[in-house]
Amino acid sequence: MKRERAISGNRWAMLLTLFIAAAFLTGMKGVRTQAAQAYGYLLPSSSYTYLDSSAVAGWPAQVVCYAKNEIYARNGRMFVSTELQNWFNMQYWYTPIYTPEQFSDAMLNPYETSNVQMLSDVEASLGMYPLDSAGYSYDPVYQYLNTVGTTQYYVNPDTYIFYDSDTRYLTDADLSPLSAQELCYAKNEIYARRGYIFASTELSDYFNGKNWYWGTADASSFSDAVFNSVETANIGLLQQKEYALVPGGYLLDQPGYTYQNIGSYSAGDVVRATSSDYIFYDSAVRYLTDAEVSALSLQQMCYARNEIYARRGYIFQSQELRDYFGSKSWYYPTVPAASFSDQVFNSVEIANIDLLKRYEYSINPNGYQLY
pTM value? Predict the structure, then answer.
């Protein structure tokens, strides 16, 4: 049965955006590490909304401390604290880029700066949480999250058959262990990620049991045009393998069907981005130079400029940019264009956007033409 959701309208919209963003969470590049846990953000909107103390009312000091440092972690900061570093290493969204010495608070946007201060004040009022104390445990954080029901915010990769089937081309080797039922479900998982509402009771019940599934489009309004090239290829391969095992494919809604043998095959692998996954990995903390920007192609200038938006969670309207940034393991689209504000940028980002745009439009008055 689908878990009850007692969520306000604004938060519902925010969560829906976040869960849609799960479709882009994992990419192909980087070093793979095994994730012991796979939660999302303690405060999902802390990078683009001014929060007050009511957002963390009743939270223990440890959770407040983690939420404060989550803002730094979202910006790629590494931590001196072993406790914090290990915690964020377990989060699928975390991409460590900058050492504490390289990181500057100037990278934070006005929302983040305000929220860090608010969380610091709340933590101080509770008694500062002592990091790295002997015998520290994450159990109180998990217990607290489960108690207050905020697990609705989190997407566990182990709840997917193929967590990355929207960003990675599946192989014959990936699919060889799967039964016809699993192949059918993995194929429809790609549809489920895109909000497809299933007519099959079997599929509907299965995906309604996933906290990342939000059915928003019935068959009459759904179009395969929403799929990117990776998704399209994987749907084709999954169906080919399914039909090879069972002519005509797995037969849904037969009496006595069970989900007992449905497994997860790639969910635990979380990809960590490296500097090579960016055009300018440090364009949020370093002023770019004329020499390095002028050396780029027109397309690269456009991509580098939009990379700064992508790092801030911008959801692109251009399919070209959706496909390009959707392949990046560090890209987490959370903010629709209508809700996005340039206030999320720090002064370095603003300057680099202006520089990149100036060069791009000096080459072509219309800029690079996106498809």
Answer: 0.50
